[in-house]
Each structure stands twice: as structure tokens, then as C-alpha cells.
Design a protein that fits this description.
This protein is mainly beta and about 425 residues long. It is built from three helices and 30 strands.
Length: about 425
């Protein structure tokens, strides 16, 4: 108890909100027969409305009228690829009464729509900060999400496999069929369906995120094979191996500019209370185990897991930085541009999609975490907010974040169906 109080006092003195930072004070888990459901119903931004940017910045709609956009990838020539996607059919997920309730609530949140299964290319910026042209770049995909370019090979992560496509700089569409280079866990359950990818800086290795098939292994660990993990794929040999495990739902990945380490944001487990368990931002250590499902934030044991593994709990790595309970932190981009003030260099932008199971709501914003010498160095700062109205309506929900060639921040909004572009005022 003394240690908890000490950490809490330190966090408050350092200016960290509760549930955020490198040493969050964690409350005791709460037990409830009926889980909290508090979905923000959709009431989208109107034509001239925008989110609220941090002081000194302005935000414009870079592209509108997209079809459930979730992710963005900036090509070396400045073209922006936007992934328009949604969950595939997964008949075993959300079965029964609880599943029916969940499906109805997700529909209320604007999350139940057919998947467009395509990638759209946006090119150039006109005088009003809007993309000049758009074209269908790839279509006929299967709930795609992550994208990575290595040389003239474009890799796309479908929900069940990574495909490789030929790419030449400047082309506005790809019609060649994709070649499968790696299977990913999918199937008829496929609870966390989004699979992200990133290439190593030397272009030799691909990393892929795979979320768990459950909240806390309630379907049995046999349904979690290869999940709650980051995989690595050697592109020369095609050999895939586990890189890190115990990550309930890793999503955004990025290379930290100073340390050169791989970092990720992770969505943690539910139904332990409004403030448990915080989602987090962490460096990813090769061979590291991060606790799921047996424990969270190091050695905090989750008693709901049927078969305990104390030997794994003992070596569970404590994440680097808590991002608040149920914020659904998905997007991650380190800032390496020159357009923003120098204080942003090397820091992390994080897209928080927003809670559906917390009172009051959390997330529904893009936050900035400052870094110094390759490590988080201060409290999170609201960078783009206003996605949630005062009445608790979702005007939009940020997912992916990316830095464009000019150094502006792109924010993908899958409820407003917009890609927002944030720049310093006057740019």
C-alpha cells in the first residue's frame, strides 16, 4: 500500500493524470456481473466543423467522404494511402446474449458497416489544404489494415495474411495480384481482426501485430495460438518467428528516432473497472513477455484466468508508459518532421479511438507524449480533441496517425469518414 501511495504522489507531483505515465497507481480490480457499457452514439461533424487543435495549430479536412477509413501510410513521393476497411465476417465472435448486446452497441457507435476492402491514394495539397486528387489504389482486399513499402515491394496486412504487391513510384493504382508472404491468425472467431505491419529500417524484416482472440482467454488458450503478439518475418527466407508476446492487442508500431527501438501501443483487458487496465505505450524487447492474459502491468495477477502461470508472471515486463483506462489507443507516430516546433521532435502522437466501456468516457482524442533521449519525459498533452461533444456524442473517432512529407500530422477518423491534417497556424 505504501508503494502505491508513493507512486500516486509522485505521479501527481510530476503532473501526470491518474492512469497515465511511467508509474501509474493502479486501483484494485472491480468485479461485476454486468460489464459497463457506455457507447458514445454517433453525431458526425457537420460540413464546416472540425476537431480542436492545440494552441498554435490549425486543422482542416484533407479528404472527406471516405468509407470507414482506419489507417494511413505516406509513400516516399508524398502520396498518402488511406486504408478503408472494417471487420470481416467472424460468426463465432460475440455469440450469445452478451454478443448480441455488444453488436447492437457497436452499431450505435457507427462501427458495424460492410468493409470497403480497398486502399485509396490521395495526392498533393491544394491552396486550401485539401488533397487534389484521389484514386482507387488497391481493391478486393480482405479487411486490410497495415501497409509497408520496402524498395519496390508494397506489403499489405489483410486480416489473415500479409500480401506483397509490385509498386513503382508515382503509380496511382495496382492491378497485379498480391503474393502471400505470411499467414496471420484469422478464422471464424478472429476477435481482434486488425493486423498492422512495419518494416525494419534496413528493410530486411517485417513486423506484424496480432491481437488476442478474447478479453482474457475465456475461450481457452488453444484459441490464442500465435496471438497477443508481435511477429517478425525475415523477408529473405520467409521465416516467421514470435518477436514479443503477452501483448493483448498491439496496434500502432513505430521506430523511436533517438533510441532506434521498436515501440507499440497496446489495448489492455476489460471488465476490471473504469480505470483498469490502462492501455499503454511501450518499447518492445526481443523475446519479451508483457503479461497477457495472466497478469497486467508487470506482476498484477488477473485472477479470472483459469490456468495460472506464475513462472510467466514473474518475468512479465512492466510497460513504459500508461495511456489511461479504455482509451483504445490505436495510432502511433513519432515526429521527425521540421514543420512543428522543435519540442515535438522525437515525441509520440497517439490516436485514441475512445472508450465504449467506461463511465465517464475516455480517449476520443490525439495525444502527444514528449520524449527525451529516447524515453517518455512528461505528461501527455491533448493535441487534437473535440471528437466527443459535451452531450457525449461521437463527432468522430481518431484511429491512425501519420506524418506527411511536409511535416503535417494526418489523423484518420473512421466515424466522420475524414482524414484530418494538422499544421502550425499560417502553414
Amino acid at each position: 500500500m505504501l508503494a502505491t501511495l508513493t507512486m500516486s504522489t509522485w505521479a501527481q507531483q510530476a503532473g501526470y493524470p491518474p492512469g497515465f505515465g511511467p508509474a501509474p497507481a493502479l486501483p484494485q480490480p472491480e468485479k461485476s456481473l454486468i460489464p459497463t457499457v457506455n457507447v458514445a452514439p454517433v453525431e458526425r461533424f457537420k460540413d464546416n466543423e472540425t476537431p480542436v487543435a492545440a494552441a498554435g495549430f490549425t486543422v482542416r479536412a484533407y479528404a472527406r467522404n471516405l468509407d470507414h477509413p482506419r489507417w494511413a501510410y505516406v509513400l516516399p513521393n508524398g502520396d498518402v494511402l488511406v486504408v478503408e476497411t472494417n471487420a470481416p465476417p467472424k460468426p463465432e465472435d460475440n455469440k450469445g446474449i452478451k454478443g448480441a448486446i455488444m453488436k447492437s452497441q457497436m452499431k450505435k457507435a457507427g462501427a458495424v458497416t460492410p468493409s470497403a476492402n480497398r486502399i485509396t491514394l490521395l495526392r498533393d495539397i491544394d491552396a486550401n489544404g485539401v488533397a487534389k486528387t484521389r484514386s482507387v489504389f488497391l481493391q478486393g482486399l480482405h479487411s486490410p489494415f497495415g501497409v509497408a513499402l520496402v524498395g519496390n515491394d508494397l506489403y499489405v496486412a489483410n486480416t489473415d495474411a500479409v500480401l506483397k504487391f509490385p509498386y513503382q513510384a508515382g503509380q496511382t493504382s495496382i492491378t497485379a495480384p498480391g503474393v502471400k508472404v505470411m499467414d496471420l491468425p484469422g478464422g471464424t472467431l478472429n476477435h481482434h481482426w486488425t493486423k498492422n505491419i512495419i518494416a525494419s529500417p534496413d528493410g530486411k524484416t517485417l513486423y506484424a501485430t496480432v491481437g488476442s482472440n478474447s478479453n482474457v482467454a475465456e475461450h481457452g488458450m488453444e484459441r490464442e495460438a500465435g496471438r497477443a503478439a508481435i511477429w517478425q518475418l525475415d523477408l529473405a527466407t520467409g521465416k516467421a518467428t514470435l518477436f514479443a508476446t503477452g501483448l493483448r492487442n498491439p496496434n500502432g508500431m513505430a521506430w523511436q528516432p533517438q533510441s532506434k527501438a521498436l515501440w507499440t501501443v497496446v489495448n489492455e483487458r476489460d471488465e476490471l473497472g473504469n480505470d483498469l487496465v490502462p492501455d499503454y505505450l511501450t518499447s518492445v524487447k526481443p523475446g519479451g513477455f508483457y503479461g497477457w492474459p495472466y497478469s497486467y502491468f508487470g506482476q498484477h495477477v488477473d485472477a479470472r484466468v483459469k490456468e495460472q502461470k506464475p513462472e510467466l508472471v514473474a518475468k512479465a515486463i512492466v510497460p513504459d508508459y500508461a495511456l489511461g483506462g479504455h482509451t483504445a489507443s490505436l495510432g502511433l507516430a513519432f515526429y521527425e518532421g521540421n514543420l512543428f516546433p522543435a519540442t515535438y521532435r522525437g515525441g509520440a502522437f497517439i490516436g485514441q479511438h475512445g472508450s465504449w466501456n467506461r463511465k465517464p468516457h475516455s480517449g476520443y482524442k490525439v495525444v502527444f507524449v514528449p520524449f527525451t533521449n529516447g524515453q517518455p519525459s512528461g505528461p501527455p498533452q491533448d493535441f487534437l480533441s473535440g471528437f466527443l461533444s459535451a452531450e457525449g456524442k461521437a463527432r468522430g473517432r481518431p484511429v491512425g496517425v501519420a506524418v506527411d512529407k511536409a511535416g503535417a500530422l494526418l489523423v484518420v477518423d473512421d466515424v466522420a469518414n475524414i482524414v484530418w491534417r494538422v499544421t502550425p497556424k499560417g502553414n
